[in-house]
Write a structure and sequence with these properties.
Layout lengths: L1 H8 L6 H15 L7 H8 L5 H8 L5 H16 L5 E10 L9 E5 L4 E15 L2 E9 L3 H5 L2 H6 L11 H14 L6 E4 L1 H4 L2 H10 L2 E6 L4 E4 L4 E4 H6 L7 E8 L2 E11 L6 E7 L6 E7 L6 H10 L2 H12 L10 H25 L21 H11 L7 H29 L4
Parallel strand pairs: 1-5, 5-6
Antiparallel strand pairs: 1-3, 2-3, 3-4, 6-12, 7-8, 9-10, 10-11, 11-12
Helix pairs in contact: 2-3, 2-4, 2-14, 3-4, 5-14, 8-10, 14-15
Length: 427
């Protein structure tokens, strides 16, 4: 299956050298090495220097967007179309400097606070067989980056790239996926995307249903559109029989049960406000929902529960295939590394989907089964480490790479010291 993946993307590389390096790069991402940056990937591949890996990300001729298209089609083929949902979300990449494309002090859920970081907007495909990241966009802040030609040039940002809000980036990815033939009846996302009326309008124009999280302060129109009211006020006036117990899907400890209520809003019979209530704490969450045809409450609950699958994708991508391990600053290099990491994750997801039994586990009596759980992405990567055996490592090669790292670290240290000395007044 790995050879099939490589055959699928082989035509995206005009020369044999970058094609071979891309193969080594992917194998490195699937390996057990601690940090998956160019230096360690080159050492893992048996190269004498990190140059080939660095050229692959920066200068080699290949189209990362074309590989993204291949990865999107590959994921769709292996995950199937039953109950497909597109999930949009963002994740942060913490950085220390100011030169990486798109970096600035901004809020990121990765740290849970404002940090110096890059932010990527991602699109995931989730079906009954699994979930995978299928598209990505690096967010380019408006004031600190989009309007600074000198900074843009230094980071290799193409002139055609202009400022776009995160919901606008999400809309482009969703449209590209649907235009490419991805079968998904629903889109879901958190408040950052649910609050955007243009994104919701674009989905409705395409006839694609959505279940989008919104703030408690969102104003909706009830009573056939005649009465505007805050979402939390609507929730507070619902009678006890309006709440129903449903599972938002299985978690690590079993079904995730919440109390749910829904109410028609606007004048459209297919438009709802969906409300989730934590059975222990009473905490509420709100979703704006629209569908081209009539749906059940259980279906809206299912879609709302799938939104969390993108967080699992981020966790697996960062923990298993080094999505955030890159040490590059250039716009093109970021997209190339992230695309290859997404492809590595899609490969692991496809293996897990193909290895899963045809008959699903008994959702109602799981304690009766003595069979092991189905293969997970981390377990498959653990097994692949033994299959993709790295080349034999000699003492001489270990010392070579140790010397290489320490020489370049010394160069970096001298550079930092000189910069500090120039910037500080004489004693």
């Amino acid at each position: 299956m790995f050879d099939q993946v490589m055959a699928r993307i082989a035509g995206r590389f005009g020369r044999v050298e970058p094609r071979a390096t891309a193969r080594a790069y992917l194998l490195g991402l699937l390996s057990s090495i601690e940090r998956k940056n160019c230096w360690q990937l080159a050492e893992q591949a048996g190269h004498a220097r990190p140059g080939p890996m660095q050229r692959l990300l920066r200068y080699a001729r290949w189209d990362a967007d074309a590989v993204r298209d291949d990865l999107r089609a590959y994921a769709a083929e292996h995950l199937g179309a039953d109950g497909g949902v597109l999930v949009v979300d963002e994740t942060g990449f913490l950085k220390k400097g100011q030169c990486s494309a798109g970096v600035q002090r901004q809020y990121t859920g990765t740290a849970g606070r404002i940090e110096n970081a890059q932010v990527g907007v991602f699109l995931a495909l989730a079906t009954e067989r699994g979930r995978a990241l299928i598209d990505r966009r690096l967010y380019l802040p408006e004031h600190s980056w989009s309007g600074d030609p000198e900074r843009r040039t230094a980071a290799g940002i193409p002139e055609t790239v202009q400022f776009a809000t995160k919901p606008r980036l999400a809309s482009k990815m969703i449209a590209a996926a649907l235009d490419a033939g991805i079968t998904a009846s629903w889109v879901t996302g958190d408040e950052a995307y649910g609050q955007d009326p243009q994104l919701r309008a674009a989905l409705e124009a395409r006839g694609t249903g959505y279940v989008m999280a919104v703030a408690c302060s969102m104003r909706v129109r009830i009573n056939h559109g005649r009465t505007p009211m805050r979402a939390d006020t609507v929730a507070g006036r619902l009678p006890a029989p309006a709440w129903q117990r449903h599972s938002a899907g299985n978690g690590a400890k079993g079904p995730r049960y919440y109390d749910w209520a829904w109410i028609h809003i606007g004048t459209d019979s297919h438009r709802h406000l969906l409300i989730r209530r934590n059975r222990s704490t009473g905490e509420l969450a709100f979703y704006l929902c629209w569908s081209p045809t009539a749906v059940t409450l259980a279906e809206l609950v299912r879609v709302a529960g799938i939104r969390w699958s993108v967080e699992e994708c981020f966790q697996a991508a960062k923990g298993q295939v080094g999505l955030d391990h890159y040490q590059v600053r250039n716009w093109t290099s970021w997209h190339r590394h992230v695309t290859l990491a997404m492809l590595a994750l899609a490969f692991l997801t496809a293996l897990a989907a193909d290895a899963a039994p045809e008959r699903p586990d008994d959702a109602y009596h799981p304690v009766r089964s003595r069979d092991p759980i189905t293969l997970t992405v981390p377990e498959i990567r653990h097994l692949l480490v033994a299959v993709f055996d790295p080349p034999a490592v000699t003492v001489a090669r270990l010392l070579h790479w140790s010397n290489w790292r320490r020489r370049h670290q010394a160069t970096a240290r001298r550079s930092h010291y000189r910069r500090r000395a120039v910037g500080e007044p004489a004693g």
